[in-house]
Amino acid sequence: MRILLINGSPKGKTSNSLRLAESFVEGVREVAERNGEVTLDEVHAASLKIAPCRGCFACWKHTPGSCCIKDDMKDVIEKIIQADMVIWSFPLYYFNVPGILKNLIDRQLPMSLPFMSENTSGNGSGSHDARYEMKEKRHVLISTCGFYSAEKNYDSVLQMFDHFLGKDNYATIFCGQGELFGVKEVSARTSEYLAFVREAGVEFANGKIPEELNRKLCTQLYPKEVFERMADVSWGISKTTGEKEAEDLIFTRQMAALYNEASYDGKDRVLEMNYTDLGTRYQIRLGKNGSEVFTDGSLKATTVVNTPFKVWKAISSGEMEGAEALGKGLYSVTGDFSLMMSWDKFFGALDSRVEEKKDEGKKTSEQKNPSMMTMLIPWITFWIAVAINPGVGSVITLAVCALVPLLMRKHRLVIWDLLSFALVAILSAVANITGNGELVTNAGYAVFGALWLGSCLVREPLSATYVKYDYNGDAAYRNPLFMKTNYILAFCWGVLYVLTALWTWLLRRAGLGSWIFVINNVVPVLMGLFTAWFVKWYPARLASGKK
Hints:
The structure is a single chain. By secondary structure, the protein is α/β, with parallel strands linked by helices. The chain contains 21 helices and twelve strands. The protein has helices spanning 16-35, 58-61, 73-82, 99-106, 155-165, 187-206, 211-217, 224-234, 247-257, 309-316, 322-327, 338-341, 343-347, 354-363, 372-388, 390-407, 415-434, 437-455, 462-467, 480-509, 514-543; strands spanning 2-7, 39-44, 85-91, 112-117, 127-130, 138-144, 170-175, 269-275, 280-287, 290-294, 303-307, 332-335. α15 runs antiparallel to α16, α15 packs parallel to α17 (415-434) and α15 (372-388) runs antiparallel to α18 (437-455). The protein is elongated, with a radius of gyration of 32 Å. Mean pLDDT is 90; it is low at 350-365.
């Protein structure tokens, strides 16, 4: 397969549209290379010498099929003729293609015959047949524009390509908010979109792009209001005074524009950015109706980030890991640290995909997030019932293990739920067979503690599995402070239950069994209170720079 990528952007290889086209080509090549040799030709119009068409028709009258202008267009025509697939990549300029690409398109005239032919396409009132066999070629238009949406902005582009390619004879990927593909601070969102484009390349190589994928490609990167605020701020000019604004203020305004109103939890917050290397402070009020930047310091800050401007920019662009920089003391945070722990929730890419996620939720029978009670109910039943009566208690516990998945069916089950069902069932069976409830329940404490400790050796500590949804789901795993906090808590709970097994055994040996029930219920409650305090205190202490 011969692929021709025509880059019609005046920006050449720095074009945002080209990034999409290159992702598409990756997908096409993945499929094509399985079926044989693949060659890729790239034509960058900005680096070629292609003069405007003179309209002299010499290529029809005097030198049929050959233009009288001797420049780079001759090679471009040869590449188009030889290609099996042509990818037209360009930004939207004044509601059509850039001038340099229009020149290239105009100069395709030698590829047509001069004689009039019947127009059956429904476009225009006349036609010219192609000089070369072009029917088997496949074409794709890939473009970005500066509006929040591509919808209804490509009418003239489509009309033009309908004329010389034929209506419905090409595929399109038109993406609004194109300038964001060059902004590192939102790379998480743009990278996701580029993955969709790559997938589209795979599907197109196999046949055509499915409607479901087309719908994803038409999804806005950010909601209209968010994008337009970022776009307006990016010019660096005050909307009210027309005066130029400082770089750090522009950056802060753009950060504020990314605030996700859906994250509002009933608590108004004021984030203060103290750029220590510049000596400037800006406050961002985060509330139910969006965000607003204050430059006069008139608000009482709830969270203060003390950071060199260059450090925060590096973190925002992904050049530096935020938690690592915090650990090295490159910046510090004081005040309410919950905002930082849930940063992705407040400023992440929870945007135009909200409705899409809601639809997905409906398709999965509205399953809720995992609940730790699913894991705990079998263990609690086991410790109480089997301790009272090994025979009857084990049967009750086995019944609970069978019923809990049914009772909690609206919640997703996780590995710790499944392991708990299996371990409790095995321990209950042992108790039923041996009739020794005390020994088996004691072993149950040790096994439960081992479950917590074992989770410290894997990517997902036990507690994190259940609480990550309060910190933007799997995105919490990219937050080392969140992970470190949960590893410590998982270790503490594990040690607690291993020690519970030990002191339970010692108390029984000492004839103080009556104290076991009290101690084994009071201590976990105290540990729970410690956990509630620790998740607030520990990350905040690290963030403030205290050792």
